[in-house]
């Protein structure tokens, strides 16, 4: 029964047009400059969406990739992803701040970051040939049932995550693959939820590091211990899925919120040198938090909350220790996924 309900969850979230608590990366910030990401809830409906550094994807529902798609191209940069048409420039050793919307992110799980050398322009690379190497990865931090996770740190920093480009990375064009994996239903087969997001970066520096990578379709298996995993026990020991972090690199850097002081636009190959973005930078102030408010308010896919003490579609409605609404807004019903989590689903 649990597996049947989990399958229903995956199907419903894949086709739904209103998802509460799932999301996408709105923007990245590099050296104080704000770069717009791809907004799957807005750009598909615009006649001329802007050229951005984030890869295009068809997750108009702010949804996820399920484990049964790990060997399909969807796991690389999200569902039906196509190349971003521009890139951002960054020096090796610099940090990239990644901003998720909407926040908070309600499901415990790891945060992972990878790079892949495009060996040419990332705007035209075949994504199925990209070989990703992991540059950071944080999972369970402490406790259990469910404990404190990397996703909790992201929530505590206004939905942001900071990743550092390796200081000795070889100059070149790279795809940054950033990913959250939600584990609230991962105790059942195909219950984990992957949210991969990709961005084009032109990295400059003097280093020679060029790690061996793994094809995106070979990063994970459905039965990996960090994918098929019950978080509702204690104590917990968690194995972060995917390849190990490149030797010599930290598993993560200090996480912090940041404020963008200027707005930059994506560089199109051939338009300017990859040595910098100053020619593209304006002086429009933009804080990371205000960007979150702007994109959250403009999103048209959020399900409206019903009147009274009822839960919205896909919201939590039960489980051990839960004290919120237990009645779902019609036509959803409260479906128990496991003893610790029940969710409002349509039949």
UniProtKB/TrEMBL annotation:
Localization per record = Secreted
Keywords (alphabetical) are: Carbohydrate metabolism, Cellulose degradation, Copper, Disulfide bond, Hydrolase, Metal-binding, Monooxygenase, Oxidoreductase, Polysaccharide degradation, Secreted, Signal
Q: What is its EC number?
A: 1.14.99.56
Reactions the enzyme catalyzes:
[(1->4)-beta-D-glucosyl]n+m + reduced acceptor + O2 = 4-dehydro-beta-D-glucosyl-[(1->4)-beta-D-glucosyl]n-1 + [(1->4)-beta-D-glucosyl]m + acceptor + H2O
Q: Which SUPFAM superfamilies match?
A: Cellulose-binding domain
Residues of the signal sequence? 1-21
Q: What is its cofactor?
A: Cu(2+)
Region Disordered, annotated ranges: 267-307
| Gene3D superfamilies xref list | 2.70.50.70
- Where would I find the CBM1 domain in this sequence? 309-345
The molecular function terms in GO held by this entry are: cellulose binding; hydrolase activity; metal ion binding; monooxygenase activity
Bilayer-crossing residues are none
What is the protein's given name?
A: lytic cellulose monooxygenase (C4-dehydrogenating)
Q: Which GO terms describe its cellular component?
A: extracellular region
Recorded hits in CDD domains, A to Z, give:
LPMO_AA9 (cd21175)
Spell out the family assignment given in the record's similarity comment.
Answer: Belongs to the polysaccharide monooxygenase AA9 family.
Q: Which domain of life is it from?
A: Eukaryota
Coiled-coil stretches are none
EC class (word): oxidoreductase
Question: What GO biological process terms are annotated to this protein in UniProt?
Answer: cellulose catabolic process
